[in-house]
Write a structure and sequence with these properties.
Layout lengths: L11 H19 L11 H28 L10 H33 L6 H34 L3 H5 L10
Helix pairs in contact: 1-2, 2-3, 3-4
The structure holds protoporphyrin IX containing FE (2 copies).
């Protein structure tokens, strides 16, 4: 019969992508551009662009890998609305991660075109910051949901998180 557990574990590669991206994202935010004038520094500018392109490329590989080889570990009998909510948050994080990088690259492109101030670049910076703040919100909901599953002890937490595992069950 339908189970309230789903024992599917994410593969080692899936976990590496998930946690590797958490580190990359934290690093990306920590070294964020605080002021657009920082882009005057050629080496900084080049590094920012290389980091962003690499991030986007790895995100694409991760997305393809996850969608073709892995499935959610939500229990089968999870309410439909909750399954849809999880999908929206997961896919939303992919879209917002890509949106952060693409809007950042667009800022870089405008800057390279010598459009360093004015309405256009201010608007793209506004979008960049809006997307990042939405991403923070989605990540917050995601961690809240993961914690809820940990308390529910339904195996979802332990399928991805290497610490505080549900020892006696999984
Ligand atoms: C930058 C922060 C994070 C991002 C962008 C993120 C993104 C994602 C995404 C997109 C998935 C779906 C599987 C995939 O495509 O890889 C996922 C799954 C998961 N994440 Fe995260 N995550 C983050 C941080 C965390 C943290 C801090 C925790 C726990 C404390 C966590 C726990 C989980 C769990 C338990 C799953 C499996 C959910 C399921 O199978 O339905 N994540 N994460
Ligand atoms: C993985 C890629 C990136 C991440 C994670 C990231 C992260 C951030 C964060 C967290 C902020 C601050 C947002 C806020 O205060 O609400 C920011 C602002 C900004 N970012 Fe990015 N960014 C990325 C790529 C880029 C790229 C490639 C460029 C341009 C070359 C860029 C240019 C800027 C600028 C100009 C600002 C606004 C600075 C200001 O307030 O004047 N970002 N970014």
């Amino acid at each position: 019969m339908r189970s309230d557990k789903n024992n599917s574990q994410y593969s080692k590669i899936a976990k590496l992508f998930h946690w590797g991206f958490v580190l990359l994202f934290v690093y990306g935010v920590a070294k964020q551009v605080d002021d657009i004038n920082q882009l005057e520094d050629q080496a900084f500018f080049r590094f920012e662009i290389i980091f962003a392109v690499m991030f986007l490329f790895l995100l694409l590989i991760r997305l393809i890998y996850m969608k073709t080889t892995q499935k959610t570990s939500l229990p089968e009998n999870t309410p439909r609305a909750q399954k849809i909510a999880a999908k929206i948050i997961h896919n939303g994080m992919y879209i917002l991660l890509a949106g952060t990088v693409l809007s950042g690259l667009l800022i870089g492109f405008l800057y390279w075109l010598e459009i360093k101030s004015g309405l256009l670049i201010d608007f793209v910076i506004f979008i960049h910051e809006l997307v990042i703040n939405l991403l923070y919100l989605f990540i917050g909901i995601h961690i809240f949901a993961a914690t809820y599953h940990r308390l529910k002890r339904d195996g979802v937490w332990s399928s991805m998180v290497p610490f505080l595992k549900e020892k006696n069950k999984y």
